[in-house]
Amino acid sequence: TKPTLAVVGATGAVGSVMLQILSQHADIWGEIRLLASPRSAGRKLAVRGEEVEVMAISEEAFVGVDVAMFDVPDEVAAHWAPIAAALGAIVVDNSGAFRMDPDVPLVVPEVNPHAARVRPRGIIANPNCTTLSMIVALGALHAEFGLRELVVSSYQAVSGAGRAGIDTLRQQLSLVAGTELGTKPGDVRRVVGDNTGPFPEPVALNVVPWAGSPREDGWSSEEMKVRDESRKILGLPQLRVAVTCVRVPVVTTHSLTVHACFEGEVTVDRAREILATAPGVVLFDNPEAGEFPTPADVVGTDPTWVGRVRRALDDPTALELFVCGDNLRKGAALNTAQIAELVAEELGATA
Ligand code: 2RA
Hints:
By secondary structure, the chain is α/β, with parallel strands linked by helices. The chain is built from ten helices and 14 strands. Helix 1 (about 15-25) crosses helix 10 (about 330-350).
C-alpha cells in the first residue's frame, strides 16, 4: 500500500506550491491529508485533480500518517512536529524550529541525501529558502574544489515573507504606480505610509537591507541561517561565511551574489563543466548574448540557475557567481517534497 501523506500548513504560500508539486510529481502517495490552523478548516483545495477538505491540526489528524510535510510558523512546528513524530509519522519540517538541532538532519537531496536516514527524533529539517537558493550549486563546486569561504549578498523576494509579503508589495506597487516618485527624499515613504507589512521599510521602488529578526551584534536571523545551515549541510562546521541579506521588490525567486573561495586554484572552464552537469543546476551564462538568470525568468522553475561565472580578479582560488532559485519551489516546497519522496522510497524498500 502507498504511504499516507499529511500536508500541514496547506493553505499558505508554500503550502499551495506543495499541492501543485504533488499534482505534478509521480503519484507515490496513497491518501493525502491537508491540515491547517482551525481558521482554515473546512476550505477545499485541489490536489491531484481532486478537491480535498482542509482539516484542523489535531492529534487524531496524524493517526495513520506515514510522512508529514510541515510549513507552519516555528512555534507551531515546535509544538506539533514532535506530536506527529510520536504518533509514527516521519516529519519533514520547513520551519526554523529544528534546523540546528544536532538530532535533526538538515537535508538537500542533491547534496547530502544520506543524512536523511539518520533522524533520531523522527524529524528531518528543510533548509531556509535563502540557503537553498544557492546550496545545490555550491555543493557541486565544493565536491570538486573544496569550499573554504563564502561571501554572499542576497536579493530576496517578498514571498519569502509569505502571503503577507506578496500582498504588501502589490498594495505598495498600486500606490506608487503612475506617480513620479524617487526624485525627492522620502517620496516613496510618504505615499506608502505605514503600510510596510512584514518589512521594516517600503519595499516598492526600494531595497531593504534586512530580513528576519534581530540577532546579536547587528546580525539578522536570516544571515545567521545562511551561515549555520550552509555549514551543517556541507559538513563544514568551520566554514567562513560573510553574508548580508537584502529584500528587493520581486514577488518570487531569491537571487544571490556569491564569492566562493576554494582550497586551491580554480578555472572558470572546469567550474562551468561542473555547473553544467550537476543535477538540479542550470548554467545560463553568456552575458554577451544577454544570457544570465533573472527572477523574472527563473520563477516557477525547479533548478538553481547560475550565471556570471568569473574567476575572482585578485584571487585565483575564488569564483564570483550570480545565482537565482525560486524560493517557494526549491527554496521550500520542492525540497520538502523531494525529502518526503526519499523517505517514501526508503519506507517502500523496507516494507
Ligand atoms: C524570507 N527566508 O525570505 C525567509 C523566509 N523563510 O523571508
